[in-house]
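Weekly puzzle thread! Below is a chain. First person to post its structure in C-alpha cell form gets bragging rights.
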Amino acid sequence: MTLPRPHRLDLFIALSGFATGLLLWSFGLYTTGDRVFDQRWAALIPLAVMASMEALRRTRPLTALNVGTLALVADQLTNGNLVTVLMFTDVVYAAVVYGKPASARRIPYTTGLITVAVTIGFLVWWQNAIALLVGVISGMISFMPAMTGAVVRNHRDAAEGARLRAEQTALLAEMDRSQAVVAERARMARELHDMVANHLSAIAIHSTAAISIDEPATTRQALTVIRENSVAGLSEMRRLIGLLRDSSGDAEPAAAPTLAGLDALVDQARTNARSSGLVLVLEDTRDTEAGLPAPVELAAYRIVQESLTNALKHAAPGEVRVVLGRGRRALTVEVTSTSGERPGPTAPGSGAGLVGMRERVDLLGGVFEAGPVMDTGGRKQWRVRAELPIDAKDEERA
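Winning reply:
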C-alpha cells in the first residue's frame, strides 16, 4: 500500500522546526541540564524524530501523535530542546483537527486525564507547590492544544455542514423549478389542445367535405363553417398568447372559460356537427346559482369541449348527450355518443385529448372514466364521465 505523500506545508514546518531546534542546540540552550543522558548530542535524536512526525501531522496524524509522545518522553531524559516541546503541541493539535472523528473526540479527554494524573502524582511525590506548576505546564503542552484543535474542528464541521445544507437547498430548489416548468408546460399543452383542437377538427372535416362533394351549396356551407372555426381558433390562439406574455402590458389576458359559456360551446358544436348527423343535447341539472371553484369550472368546461371534439371526429350519427349534475361533494360531467363506423370525412386523433382530460381530473383529485358502454336499448356507446370534487380546498384554490 502506497503511503500518502506529506503535505508541502507540513514539510516546511518540519524543516523549519528542526533548523530552529538545531540552532538552539548549537548555542547550548537546553530546557534542563541534569538528566539521564547528559551527552550533548542526545537531545538531537528526539528533535529529529519530532520533526519527522511534523511531516506526517496531516497525512498520518495518529501515528505522528503516538511517536511524538515517545519522542517527548525521550527528550525529558536528555538535556532537552524547547523546539521539541513546541512541535509536540502542534502534533497534538493536528491529531485532533486532521484525525478520525473518534480520535478527535477521545484525545482532549485523554490529555485532560493525563494532566490531572501528572499533577496529582507530582503532588504526592514532591508535596509542594512546584507540582502544580508541572501540572500547568503539562496541560499547556497537551490539553490546551487538544482543546484548541477540537474548537477548530467543530467550526470546520459546522461550516461543512452549512455548505452541504446550502447545496441540498439549491438542489431542491432546482428540482422544484424543473417540476414547476414541466407542470406549466403540461398545463399549456392541455390548454392549447383543448382550445384549438375542436376548431381545427371542424376545419379538417368540412374542408374534406368541400373537396370530395362537388355541390355548390355543400361547398358554401363547408366554407362558412371553416371560416367560423378559423376565426374562433385564431381568437383562442390570441388568448393563449396573451396568457404567455410577460407583464409588459402588450396584451390583457382574457378570463378563463366557465360553465356559463357552456350553451355557446354546445351551439358552436351543433353548427360544426350539422353535416355529420349528430344531434347535440345539453342536460344541466345542477343549481346554476350555487357557485363552483374556478378550477372545477375550467376542468368541466374543457372536458365537455374535448368530448364534443372527439364526438365530431369519431362518433356515428346519432345523439350526443352532455349531462351535468352537482351533488354535495362533487360535480359530475358525462358525455355519451353513439359508437360505430362513422360515414363521411373524419379527422385524425392523437389520443392527447383523453390524456389531457385525465390529467385535469387527477389534479383535482377526482375520478375519470372513458370507454365503450351499452345503453338501455343494447346499442354501443362511447362515454366520458368525470367526478370533480367540491371541497374546502377547491374553494381556496378558486
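Puzzle host: Confirmed. Bonus trivia for everyone else. Residues 247-253, 392-398 have pLDDT under 50 and may be disordered.
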